[in-house]
């Protein structure tokens, strides 16, 4: 907690958010309302504000993380660092990225459903069959995002990282792995004669490509929900 400044940044943001949530009902309550009605309205507004904060913060953080990992961090590191160094960094980032995405998508999904039910009381005690098709599409997009990222975290990332370590051991023996950018390992004479390496390399590429496709599908679902929000925001 004290080795870096990041915890203090998070604590500051949380404190400011809680203060605003606590003060907001008092700022917008009408002076002519009765005390009981004003208190009840303040409680409703506080709950709604907390849900909106959870919804907007989880979605925006998730979308920002997807943009950074997919289009900035991965490409910048890949074309700037030796391949093995880049692989070790991805070994640290991949599990955290997909774990974070799963958690944020789940929070976005739950808070979205709660907000839609609070703004449309007729849906409070009805199942999803009575919801509008647009709302159902958003629920499906958020749920699919959480499912895909959880699937990658549990079933694809671990074997890909294991295969990466096997590849690295073979390549270290061949005195390669410090190249920057793309390198076709099978063009090396020592590796070309190793069937185990070629099979490992092929399996690694297949899993890595599958993860990349799933990540883009997840990003597409996030963009679908971003479009939904954009069509309903007025400033």
From TrEMBL:
Places the protein is found: Membrane
Q: Which Pfam families match?
A: DUF4149
**Keyword Membrane attached:** yes
TM stretches of this protein: 54-81, 93-116, 136-156, 207-230
- InterPro entries, per database record: TMEM205-like, Xanthocillin_Biosynth-Assoc
The TMEM205-like domain, residue ranges: 58-168
What GO CC annotations are associated with the protein? membrane
Provide the primary localization: membrane
| UniProt keywords, alphabetically | Membrane, Transmembrane, Transmembrane helix
PANTHER family found in the cross-reference section:
LATE EMBRYOGENESIS ABUNDANT PLANTS LEA-RELATED (PTHR23241), LD23009P (PTHR23241:SF102)
Recorded protein name is: TMEM205-like domain-containing protein
Task: State the organism named in the record.
Answer: Anopheles culicifacies
Cite the source lineage: Eukaryota, Metazoa, Ecdysozoa, Arthropoda, Hexapoda
